[in-house]
Design a protein that fits this description.
The protein is mostly helical. The protein is 63% helix and 0% strand. The protein is built from two helices and no strands. Keywords: Signal.
Length: 43
């Protein structure tokens, strides 16, 4: 029982670390071309 709880706790901790590292990662800027080039007139 203790091993199961420790395994689940470790899995949750690993998931939390992966989620935090993904959330704080500096992703390359790949915005849609309509936004970056200004080809769409939203008015």
């Amino acid at each position: 029982m203790r091993r199961t709880l420790l395994t689940l706790l470790g899995a949750v901790a690993a998931f939390g670390v992966l989620t935090a590292s993904y959330a704080t990662a500096e992703l390359p800027e790949q915005a849609p071309s309509a936004i970056t080039t200004g080809t769409t007139d939203l008015r």
